[in-house]
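Why does residue order matter? Because the sequence determines the fold. Keep that principle in mind as you read this record.
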Amino acid sequence: MPSETILVFDQGTTRCKICLLNLRGECIGLETIRNSEYRRNSVSWQSAQEWWHGATGATKKLLSRLDMTSQRVVALSVSGRAGAGVFLDNGGEVIVDPWLDQRHHPELVEIKDQFPDLALYAATLLSKLLWLRRNDAHLFQRIAHAMYAKDFLVFRLTGNAVTDPSSGPDGLAWPAQALRNLEIAPDLLPRPGLPWELAGYLTEHAASELGLSPGLPVAVGAHDGICANVGAGVIAKGEIALTLGTHGVSRTIIEAQPAEGVTRFYCYPTGKHVIGANALMAGRSLEWFLDQSPDTRRDRNKLFQEYDDFVLKAEPGAGGASFYPYLDGQISPTLDRKVRASFHGLTTQTTQKQMYQAVLEGASFAIAESFLQLSGWIPQVSRVSVTGSGAKSKPWVQLLANLINQPLETTDGVSESRGAAIFAAVLIGKYPTIEKAAVHMVQTEQTFNPDIELSRIYQQLFKQWRDHREKLRAER
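Structure:
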């Protein structure tokens, strides 16, 4: 009898992953597509339609190389970043692609000033609608649906506009007063639903494009941060998920309302709170550096492996080179969106691989700062699980273990997809609750324990890096 599997779409900022998992949480197959970015002067964007074409092509490729006579897809689910706005007309066609620049920032500040308790992701989507109304009223009149990145995929799969609380309104309803004041029609926004609820069924058109049978149930899914926590089994008090993706994000779940000064991300999924700290673009720094490399045409996975092998054997400190990974400013532990990335300590003897090591160490220092901020907000840290694509990099995870002096557990780099699959497994009745599904579907692959001597060395380098950063900041 064929094994039952769940197909997951994980729509990130840098790439989209298509992952097939069984009901034990094992990854049967994975395809990855990198998202193209487009720039013109000060504006930048991605193509939502390219997301869909990439997802359908990758799904067909994945299914074609697997023995599907022994696998049967029984449900679909979605994980993804929030904040990206995709705008569709009444026929479901994309009329405004998700932009990456900050053109809507004045509207965002205006909305947050007026409604300080409004969730950031909700405020971001509303601010983009407001910007469009003010800058292109004719185009705004054509908008029938405004939605987030992952919810665009749900829409393409089912024809329904649905979101989850963590991606959007931070609850099971949009804030009516804010919509009235901003004169935003509620039916422009996706209906909120819990991650393990039914978003709809796979349409005949979508099934044809994916190479699947129509009528399969599609779970609402969730923000990739929620999916990462669930997929790593990081649900209990004192447990932290450290995600190494585009950003370096540390998150934990608490039951009480966060204290003043604590950064609350969103609900989990209602009733509890996810707090955390974000090392903005820390993971993207590594991709960015390789993008500038003369080896950019080589297989990216092999290139990462070659550089990882170098770092494994290298002395800490990158030969005196250092890097500050602020490609889009800094969020944690200090908000400074004007600071920019920079190298320091380069000489004629600095090699390209040492520069990569400096980027890796600088990203790790920034992540350590945000992790320490988060760990200071909770009574104790009982467990840390590393998720995201970066979890596959052994030197990176070991460096972080040495740096924050904590054992770090890893799975297989698809925790976000596994979390979304857990939601789908609950939807179709394979497990009664998220917690029980996680017991059966989450496995720890490896534990990285800190090395006492290397931990001491990296603590010194970390202090030097922070001291120099503050000196640079004072000179600005």
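The chain has 15 helices and 23 strands.
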